[in-house]
Amino acid sequence: MRIDVVTVFPDYLAALDLSLIGKARQAGLLDLRVHDLREWTTDRHRTVDDTPFGGGAGMVMRPDVWGCAIDAVLDGDPAGHLVIPTPSGEVFTQRHAEALAAEQHLVVACGRYEGIDARVAEHYRAAGRRVSEVSIGDYVLNGGEVAALVLVEAVGRLLPGVVGNPESLVEESHGAAGLLEYPVYTKPPVWDGLEIPEVLLSGHHARIDRWRRDRALERTAQRRPDMVAALDVARLDKHDRAL
Ligand code: SAM
């Protein structure tokens, strides 16, 4: 998969050289390219923004500069999917990450100031391109770079070969079961007077699976009742329903 990130702060994305995503890039599993939006400016001051029509506070990012940048990184690729992080977008979830991980080419346009001129999304949609405006949560950041880090990490770890043990993706929070993950423990078995649940030492796989499922259900009910309400009742077993 190829991901192009366009930003006025390319250094912000340096973290994507680290850890699993950094290794995936080195291994050629993820072709991640970070670009400075100012490369596509034409004036001496390398201007990317201007005052908002209609008045008001702040500056808006110019559509002409963004258009040149996006066209250049799309490089005529009809598969290129434009992703615009914005607090006014659809809230990004694991389902979005899964859908984007199935794509061949993403272009992430990181806004700053009051955001990107609305005609940019409109223009690419009108041209028949897929455009996703996504929010990483109900709060406002200063720029789209942190959102781009979130998107690249959430999508990148789903690509084949990126996470060493693909089994660890199966039971995760927000996975196919629609639950939060059960609590996890490691050595030492007693820490600060706190013991791990005895069943985890039993070696009895069926009991451990049942215990994990019960804890996942309990935790989800306590912390995310909205997720429990969305569960498919037909997929719950007798024990689940009794809980
Ligand atoms: N004026 C905009 C509004 O009220 O919707 C906020 C602009 S924000 C200060 C600047 C940039 O940060 C946005 O263009 C977007 O790229 C990014 N951003 C801020 N919050 C975000 C969020 N929750 N999710 C995704 N991107 C966000």
From TrEMBL:
The keyword Methyltransferase applies. Keywords: Cytoplasm, Methyltransferase, S-adenosyl-L-methionine, Transferase, tRNA processing. S-adenosyl-L-methionine binds at G111, I136, G137, D138, Y139, V140, L141. It catalyses: guanosine(37) in tRNA + S-adenosyl-L-methionine = N(1)-methylguanosine(37) in tRNA + S-adenosyl-L-homocysteine + H(+). The keyword Ligase does not apply. One of its GO terms (molecular function) is tRNA (guanine(37)-N1)-methyltransferase activity. InterPro entries: Alpha/beta_knot_MTases, tRNA_m1G_MeTrfase_C_sf, tRNA_m1G_MeTrfase_TrmD, tRNA_m1G_MTases_N, tRNA_MeTrfase_TRMD/TRM10. GO terms for biological process: tRNA N1-guanine methylation. Its EC number is 2.1.1.228. Residues 1-228 form the tRNA methyltransferase TRMD/TRM10-type domain. It is found in: Cytoplasm. It comes from the Bacteria. GO terms for cellular component: cytosol. Specifically methylates guanosine-37 in various tRNAs. PANTHER family: TRNA (GUANINE-N(1)-)-METHYLTRANSFERASE. Belongs to the RNA methyltransferase TrmD family. Homodimer. HAMAP family: TrmD. This is tRNA (guanine-N(1)-)-methyltransferase. It comes from Xylanimonas allomyrinae.
